[in-house]
Write a structure and sequence with these properties.
There is one protein chain. By secondary structure, the protein is α/β, with parallel strands linked by helices. It contains nine helices and eleven strands. It has helices spanning about 15-25, 45-60, 75-85, 110-120, 145-150, 165, 190-195, 210-220, 255-265; strands spanning about 5-10, 35-40, 65-70, 95-100, 105, 125-130, 140, 180, 180-185, 185-190, 225-235. The strands form two sheets. Strands 1, 2, 3, 4, 5, 6, 8, 10 and 11 form a nine-stranded mixed beta sheet that branches. It has a two-stranded antiparallel ribbon with strand order 7-9. The two termini are about 30 Å apart.
């Protein structure tokens, strides 16, 4: 994979974007051409002005396309806005890397993703190994949601069910790339050829479950999803929403989480 466009959707996290851009651009050693599409998703603060100023101060106007969305339509809509800008170009990249603002690459992570993309032609999408702020593994590659693991959430039921039915994470201790059902959209490299079959996210999801649905549609189109352990990155999580997924309680979840949950299960 010789060329990659990084797509970042920002919402109230301009400081993190500007903090992590230098590490990202250092990853250009992994590809011949790397550029960035940065969608400012109608943050209610001065994020757009901060990003505009920060990109100019870094002297990166030639490698960063900054797009201002008129409305916050959610993560899916923000990514689709960036994807449309990419598709409008005369020259298309070999891959598009979705990256959250609160995601910071380890050296060599992009190279590992690109090498795996070349090594596994059946892989349409590839995700890296997520770590938390303490550099401990956090969830990033999963099985599809099922009736069994949804029922296992009922208090008192979890420990009564077989482990293979209740667990959703996959390849936690993997050393080599391998297939899984879906990967986190916080670091998700998608081949341009796969985007020909599944070009956009379902904007019926405001936030959550949109990458699960997207990966499922890629699977249905004949592409596999791969987890790449060597592509390590730190994902803080919850910086735009204020929700810390690993510590969230039922009462903490916003209504759009339940809307997305319902939409995914009704569709699939």
């Amino acid at each position: 994979m010789k060329s990659v466009t990084v797509l970042i959707v920002n919402y109230k996290a301009a400081d993190l974007v500007l903090q992590n851009l230098p590490n990202l651009t250092a990853e250009r050693q992994g590809v011949e051409r790397l550029d960035i599409v940065l969608v400012e998703n109608a943050s209610p603060d001065d994020s757009f002005q901060a990003l505009q100023k920060g990109v100019a101060e870094l002297g990166w106007e030639d490698r960063v396309e900054l797009i201002r969305s008129p409305v916050n339509g959610g993560f899916a809509a923000g990514n689709n806005l960036g994807l449309r800008a990419i598709y409008a170009r005369a020259e298309q990249p070999d891959g598009v890397l979705l990256l959250n603002p609160d995601t910071d690459f380890f050296p060599g992570a992009l190279r590992a993703l690109c090498e795996a993309a070349e090594a596994y032609p059946e892989a349409g999408g590839l995700g890296g190994r997520a770590l938390n702020e303490e550099l401990k593994p956090r969830g990033c590659c999963y099985r599809y949601p099922s009736f069994a693991n949804e029922i296992s959430r009922v208090p008192g039921v979890f420990h009564l069910m077989p482990e293979h039915l209740r667990e959703t994470e996959m390849l936690v201790d993997a050393r080599e790339p391998g297939p899984c059902d879906w990967v986190s959209g916080s670091c998700f490299l998608i081949k341009r050829a796969a985007l020909e079959d599944v070009p956009f996210f379902d904007e019926g999801y405001f936030l959550y479950y949109e990458e699960t649905d997207f990966c499922r549609r890629m699977n249905d189109a004949g592409w596999k999803i791969y987890h790449v352990p060597a592509a390590r990155f730190v994902h803080v999580g919850g910086q735009s929403t204020g929700i810390k997924a690993q510590r969230a309680k039922v009462g903490d979840l916003p209504l759009y989480w339940y809307d997305s949950w319902r939409r995914y299960h009704m569709k699939n």
